[in-house]
Design goal:
This is Methylthioribose-1-phosphate isomerase. This protein is α/β, with parallel strands linked by helices and 349 residues long. The protein contains eleven helices and 18 strands. Helix 1 (45-53) packs antiparallel against helix 2. The chain is globular. The termini are far apart. The chain binds 5-S-methyl-1-O-phosphono-5-thio-D-ribulose (MRU).
Length: 349
Amino acid sequence: MDLLSMTSARTRSEIRPVLWDGQSCLLIDQTALPGSLRTVAIETSEQMATAIRTMIVRGAPAIGVAAAFGMVLGRREADPAQPLPHLQKVASLLRSTRPTAVNLFWAIDRMLAAAHLDSSVAHLEGEAIAILEADIATCRAIGDHGLAALPATPHRLRLLTHCNAGALATAGYGTALGVVRSAHRAHRLERVWADETRPRLQGARLTAWELVQEGIPVTVIADTVAAHLLGKGQIDAVVVGADRIAANGDVANKIGTRGVAILAHYHGVPFFVVAPWSTIDLDLADGSGIAIEERSPEEVRTIDGVVLAPEGTDFYNPAFDVTPAALISGIVTETGVFAPAQLGAALRR
Ligand SMILES: CSC[C@@H](O)[C@@H](O)C(=O)COP(=O)(O)O
């Protein structure tokens, strides 16, 4: 199956990082991009947990969708007479893979709730497919709301993004890159500046790859370059994704996002966080309660096996940081754009 799938509505192929073929879950192996586009067939819930942990599949909405199919695989492994105890175990395993993105936990909870109503394989399969399809529709709506919120400029827009919040990070179309796609289709985009995003280089490897697939102009910069471009007036707005948004509008996203937000604020450039409602965690009053994943020091110590610092050096590798709500111009969701302080009230409406 072609994971750059053709849809009947569009002539261009679209990126689908997670697909279900009725037996197994097909993932684009994001650790192999941009060198090779290969797929991995995930056949057990343990394989799915490993794929999420090792970032074969990554990005908050995409790991939620993948975990939903992990639960379907778990259901197939369970005792048909008593599937719930095994499903609870699979849920715990999947929850243990990555702590920061709330979409993972949201999708697992939704699958467990579905299993309590009807624990048949067919019902859970339908629920996971519904999560996948809704995510694509959500991203398209997000893209259009984000486009409407972008500043009016006499020239086409130059947008800066960090990490990869694109089709690869969702079921398709993307959040921050959904806004980019909508701007491109509306002929309002000049170029995307993509932070390379050390240490795992999601900007250089993944954002650039998926934009090049669609002929969207993209320039990769070292993470240290953004301040220089902002100072020269070369960036009209920043669009980034989110892994978890607290009730007060504080946002956890890829490490380095906070620095970009501080820079944008200093230069008076709008900074938009782009995410579905499933990324909002109203149980957390503010960002101080967000669990920040710490990954292996090896990701900082080496690039492609080349050691960067002398023996005896210590390395520290937090994968996310928290951007305070005060630095965020707007949070773009599938139902509209909100000031961070409006989030709680908007969700309760
Ligand atoms: C639409 S994806 C939003 C975020 O998940 C994304 O910006 C990000 O930080 C991804 O981190 P990753 O560690 O690659 O999973």
